[in-house]
UniProtKB/TrEMBL annotation:
Belongs to the TRAFAC class OBG-HflX-like GTPase superfamily. HflX GTPase family. It is found in: Cytoplasm. Mg(2+) binds at S215, T235. GO terms for cellular component: cytoplasm. This is GTPase HflX. Keywords: Coiled coil, Cytoplasm, GTP-binding, Magnesium, Metal-binding, Nucleotide-binding. Monomer. Associates with the 50S ribosomal subunit. The keyword Metal-binding applies.
Length: 436
C-alpha cells in the first residue's frame, strides 16, 4: 500500500524559515534551536523571516502583509518548502500554502521528519510512522488535490466524498495495525525488563535535553560504539549496556532519546515504550549542557517530560556536561547535598574529564547494596566461577588441592542472596559492607 505504507522522508531542499517572537511565553519558541532543527533535517536555509505578534492569527498564523513577504521570498529563491518554528493548525497550513504556493511544514512536522531519518530499530520506525500518521490524519484534505472539492451541492457529491472517506478508513486501519505491532514490541521490552530485574542489576537511565552529550557519555562509561554527533536527535533508539561501578557492582545503563522544548504530545505518546526505560529505572542521570545559556529552561523542559512519562519519583543525579566550554573554566568536581550525598557532578564527557567522579557518585548512590563476600565452590562449578566474574568484581581467587575454588567478591545485597542459594556453593560468608 503506497499511500499508507512506510512513509518516505520528503527531501527538504531550499527552505524559507518563519519565526515569530510572541509576547506570550507559552507560544514562544527558541530561534537557535529552530535553526539547529532545520540543519538536522538537512534543509538549505534560503531566508529567515522574523516578526513579532501578541498572539497567532487564527487564519494565517502571521499577518497577511508578513505572509506576502514570505511568498515573495519563496518566489525569489524558488524555495521548495516554508518551515514555521511553531505548531500550525491544519486550516492554517492550507491557508498559508494557498498564498505562498509552496509546501508548508510546522515545527511538529519538522521534528517528525528528523525522527523519520534517525530511527534505526524496528520499534523506532514503527513509532515514527505512527506519529506521522496521527499528524497526517487531521491534514488529509491538504495532501491530495482531488479532495479539495468537499463542499456539497450539485456535481460535487459522490466520488469525492467517497474518496475522502476511503483515505480516512485506510489511514485508520494502518494506525490500528501499527498499534498492534507496537503493543507486541512493548510486551517484548517488558519481558526484557523483567529479566534484568530478576538478575538483580540496578538500572541507570540517561536522560536530558537533545544534544546534551548523552551518547558520548554512554560510550565513555560502557566502551560502547553508539552513534554520537553534535546535532539534535543524533540517536533515537534506546540502547542498553552493562557498566561496572567502583566496588564491583554491575549496573545496566540505558541511553534514551533526547528531549526538546514543547515536545509534541504525539511524540511523547509514540515513544512512551522507549521512555518506559526511564520510569523503570533505579536512578536517572539527568545530563545537562553546562555551557548552554538556556540550561535552566531546558532543565525545566526535561523535568516536564519526566513527569509525563511517570518517572518523577525516580531519584536523579544532575550531571553538568561540557564544562570545558564554560568561561571561566570549571574543574571537574562533585557538589554534595546536606546529607553528604552527591547531588551534582561536573564533567566533560568528550574530553574524559571527571568521569571517575561520576562513577564514584553512581556507586555511592547504591551504597549499602554492595557487600564483600567469601565463597567456596566445588571443582565442578567452573560455570559458577565465570558467572561471579560477570556479576561483580573478583578481588582474590585461590584453589585447593581438591579443586575447590575460593573467591572474594563484591556483589550487591540481592546478588549475595541469589548466590547463597546455588547448589554448588559449599560455603559463603558476608565479610563486610563494601566501602564505595
Amino acid at each position: 500500500m503506497e499511500l499508507f505504507g512506510r512513509l518516505e522522508r520528503k527531501q527538504l531542499d531550499v527552505a524559507i524559515l518563519v519565526h515569530v517572537d510572541f509576547e506570550d511565553e507559552t507560544c514562544r519558541e527558541e530561534l537557535t534551536e529552530f535553526l539547529e532543527l532545520v540543519e538536522s533535517a538537512g534543509a538549505e536555509q534560503a531566508e529567515l523571516v522574523k516578526t513579532k505578534r501578541d498572539r497567532p492569527d487564527a487564519k494565517l498564523f502571521i499577518g497577511s502583509g508578513k505572509l506576502d513577504e514570505v511568498a515573495a521570498a519563496v518566489a525569489l529563491h524558488q524555495a521548495d518548502v516554508v518551515i514555521f518554528n511553531h505548531a500550525l493548525s491544519p486550516g492554517q497550513e492550507r491557508n498559508i500554502e494557498r498564498v505562498v504556493k509552496a509546501r508548508v511544514i510546522d515545527r511538529v512536522g519538522l521534528i517528525l521528519d528528523i525522527f523519520a531519518q534517525r530511527a534505526r530499530s524496528h520499534e523506532g520506525k514503527l513509532q515514527v510512522e505512527l506519529a506521522q500518521l496521527r499528524h497526517m490524519s487531521t491534514r488529509l484534505v491538504r495532501g491530495w488535490t482531488h479532495l479539495e472539492r468537499q463542499k456539497g451541492g450539485i456535481g460535487l457529491r459522490g466520488p469525492g466524498e467517497t474518496q475522502l472517506e476511503s483515505d480516512k478508513r485506510l489511514l485508520q486501519e494502518r494506525i490500528k495495525h501499527l498499534l498492534k505491532r507496537i503493543e507486541k514490541v512493548r510486551k517484548q521490552r517488558a519481558l526484557g525488563r523483567q529479566s534484568r530485574q530478576r538478575s538483580d542489576h540496578p538500572t541507570i537511565t540517561l536522560v536530558g535535553y537533545t544534544n546534551a552529550g548523552k551518547s558520548t557519555l554512554f560510550n565513555q562509561l560502557t566502551a560502547a560504539d553508539v552513534y554520537a554527533e553534535n546535532r539534535l536527535f543524533a540517536t533515537l533508539d534506546a540502547t542498553l549496556r552493562s557498566v561496572h561501578l567502583p566496588g564491583g557492582g554491575q549496573a545496566i545503563l540505558a541511553d534514551t532519546v533526547g528531549f526538546i522544548r514543547h515536545i509534541p504530545h504525539d511524540l511523547v505518546t509514540a515513544f512512551r515504550s522507549t521512555l518506559e526505560e526511564t520510569s523503570e529505572a533505579d536512578l536517572l542521570i539527568h545530563l545537562i549542557d553546562a555551557a548552554d545559556p538556556l540550561r535552566d529552561d531546558k532543565i525545566a523542559q526535561v523535568q516536564q517530560v519526566i513527569t509525563e512519562v511517570g518517572a518523577n519519583d525516580v531519584p536523579q543525579l544532575l550531571v553538568f556536561n561540557k564544562i570545558d566550554l564554560l568561561k571561566p573554566a570549571v574543574e571537574p568536581h562533585v557538589d554534595f547535598d546536606e546529607e553528604g550525598q552527591p547531588a551534582r557532578v561536573w564533567i566533560s564527557a568528550q574530553n574524559n574529564l571527571g568521569l571517575d567522579y561520576l562513577k564514584d557518585a553512581l556507586a555511592s548512590f547504591f551504597k549499602g547494596q554492595f557487600v564483600r563476600i567469601f565463597i567456596k565452590l566445588g571443582a565442578e562449578a567452573g560455570h559458577r566461577r565465570a558467572q561471579l566474574y560477570a556479576l561483580g568484581k573478583v578481588e582474590q581467587e585461590a584453589s585447593d588441592d581438591d579443586g575447590t575454588i575460593g573467591l572474594q567478591v563484591y556483589l550487591t545485597e540481592q546478588q549475595y542472596h541469589q548466590v547463597s542459594k546455588w547448589p554448588e556453593c559449599q560455603y559463603i560468608e558476608k565479610l563486610q559492607e563494601a566501602v564505595v
